[in-house]
Amino acid sequence: MAPQAPREQEQSIKARKREIFEEEQSFGPRKPFADYLARTEATPLSTGQKAVLWGVGALVVLLLLAALLTMPAPTSGPHQSSPAKGAAAPAAGR
User: Fold this and answer.
1) Domains of the chain, residue spans
2) CA–CA distance from 86 to each of 60, 70, 81, 82, 89 (Å)?
3) 3-state DSSP percent of the chain in helix, strand and coil, to 5
4) What's the longest Cα–Cα distance across the chain?
5) SS3 call for 60
6) How many whole angstroms separate alpha carbon 12 and alpha carbon 3?
7) Whole-angstrom Cα distance, residue 71 to residue 66?
8) Helix and strand numbers, DSSP H then E, in the chain
9) How far apart are alpha carbons 21 and 94 in whole angstroms?
């Protein structure tokens, strides 16, 4: 990408700034959330919906247990590799 002239770069920055920080346009009056909440009936879930939710929950628990049970066992202590053949051993006392 070729470098732009400083003036062109400033104009580009200003154009992007206007796009990002442009004021929201009003689309008319909006109802408060309390109005929607008051008009919505609180109906209990049907038996089918409850069964689906319980089934999905059981599947999630089974997947979690399977993931936990198939994890590799932790090793004891950090893994240390032996020095390569011909490499000088570290001198004691340094």
Assistant:
1) 44-68
2) 53, 40, 15, 12, 9
3) 50, 0, 50
4) 82
5) helix
6) 13
7) 9
8) 3, 0
9) 62
Look at the pTM and tell me if it is higher than 0.70. Answer: no
Name the DSSP class of 37: H
DSSP secondary structure letter of residue 71? S
pLDDT in tens, the chain (94 residues): 555 688 899 988 888 888 887 766 677 788 888 998 888 888 999 999 999 999 999 999 999 999 999 998 888 766 666 666 665 666 666 5
Cα–Cα distance, 2 to 4 (Å, whole number): 6
Q: How is residue 2 written in tokens?
A: 């070729």
